[in-house]
Structure formats: C-alpha cells, structure tokens
Amino acid sequence: MKIRKVLVSQPEPNNPKSPYFELAKKYNLKIDFRQFIQVEGVSAKDFRQQKINITDFTAVVFTSKTAIDHFFRICDEMRITVADTMRYFCITESVAFYLQKYIVYRKRKIFHGKSKFEDLIDIIVKHREENFFVPLSDPHNSDIPDMLARNSINHTIGTMYKTISRGLDSKDLDYDILVFYSPSGIKSLKENFPAFTQGEVKIAAFGPTTAEAVTHEGFRLDIQAPNPQAPSMTMALDCFIRDFNKNNK
C-alpha cells in the first residue's frame, strides 16, 4: 500500500505555492488540514490577575509565532508601550523574523537559536543580567521553566493564551500519515481517541518536544523534522513518502 492520504494538524495554507500543495501534486496525495487544537487568547482582565507588569522586564523570550501575536495583543489591549530597549530572544530564526510584524527589526536587539530551546538557553545565559519575561500557553511543558531555573535565570512565566483540544470524530483519523506540530496536538489525539491504535498509521512530528510527546504517549514516531537531511516537515515527508512508495509498489 502506498501513501495516499495525509492529515496535517494545522490550518490550510493561504499561499497556493505552499510546499504541501506541491507535495500533493508530486505524489498524487490527498492532503487535508484540520487543527487538533484551537488557541484562545487570555483576556487583558485575566492577564492582570497574574500581577505581571510587562514594563518591569528588559527581555522577552518567544518560543513561537503565536506567543509573539498574543504578547503584542495584550500590550495593545493594556495600552502598554514596549520599550525600544527591550531585547528579544527567539527559539528560531523564523520566529525572530516574525517580529517584523510588530517592531522595526533592524533597530532592536534580537537573538535566536537554531531549532531547540537548548540552543537558545546558551545565548540567554550570556545575558543573565536581563530580567526575562516568558509568555507560554496554558498548559505548557515544564522543560523551558525548568531549564531557565537550572541556569539561575531571572525570569517570570506568563500565560497569554490557552491551547484547547478540539472535538474530533473517527473519520479524522482515516489517513496514512498524521502530521503534528505541537505536543498539544498529540494530547488532543489522546483525549479524543483514547482507544486509538496506531497500527499502520504513520505519525510525523515537527520539533523535539512534539517528537517527545509522541513517544511519551506510547505512539511510534515514524517521521521527525527538522533533521540533517530535511530542515522542514514537507521535506521530511517528501523523503519518507518517496522511499516508502518505492518499497511498496
């Protein structure tokens, strides 16, 4: 059996030139996009109850583009002007570039890691004199707070958005490959389908925390990105599908 159907747990790309559409054309695939989770922003009122004053911080750590969106949303709703001297520490270069949506990029102090938080922590340690604010979702993995604490980094965790599992039914799993981009997506799979048996279904995970969540929940991880040969999920899928279909003619 060749790979014919792929489910990607993200919104459908708006760009008609998305690599996913090219992948579908290349291998004659049916690729559907369906979010396993939904993100809800925390209101300014609820954020105030956390008793966090953003102007107290000299640096902010961003682990995703979603975190950036909700950080600046809260600042806007609370009429907070982010100081020009604020330093930004981003988990990847693409997340760092996303800041251009909100700030004049070339005029700010911006640092980024390669792909893992372990890369970024080395940079953060070199700036341990800063007072860091770290916006994370509720719930969130404890790895990041633990790593900051172990390195004696002065930081505060704040909740600016929540990830919630979406209601799904059995037809949502009728695919050859399920592609996940966050641990929350794996959690949603487990919550919606407690009796799910992976069998021949392939699971793909983007990022080390998502990959860890797959194995932690007892599933088999078949495709992981980024990797040395494939820096993107679509490239990793391309390599896997090419080899799999070749061996299953």
Task: Tell me the layout of helices and strands.
Layout lengths: L4 E4 L10 H9 L2 E4 L3 E5 L2 H5 L10 E4 L2 H13 L9 E4 L2 H6 L10 E4 L4 H9 L6 E7 L4 H8 L4 E11 L11 E4 L2 H10 L9 E5 L1 H9 L6 E3 L7 H15 L2
Parallel strand pairs: 1-2, 1-9, 4-5, 4-7, 5-6, 7-8, 9-10, 10-11
Antiparallel strand pairs: 3-8
Give a description of the structure.
The mean pLDDT is 90. The protein folds into two domains: 5-36 and 168-247, Rossmann fold, CATH 3.40.50.10090; 40-163, Rossmann fold (3-Layer(aba) Sandwich). The longest helix has 15 residues, at 233-247. Strands 3-8-7-4-5-6 form a six-stranded mixed β-sheet, with helices on both faces. A five-stranded parallel β-sheet has the order 2-1-9-10-11, with helices on both faces. It is elongated and about 60 Å long. Helix content is 34%, strand content 22%. The relative contact order is 0.16. By secondary structure, the chain is of the alpha/beta class. Helix 8 (208-216) links the parallel strand 10 and strand 11.
CATH T-level topology of the largest domain: Rossmann fold
Give average pLDDT, whole number: 90
Shape: elongated
Report the β-strand fraction as a percent range: 15-25%
Biggest sheet character: 6 strands, mixed
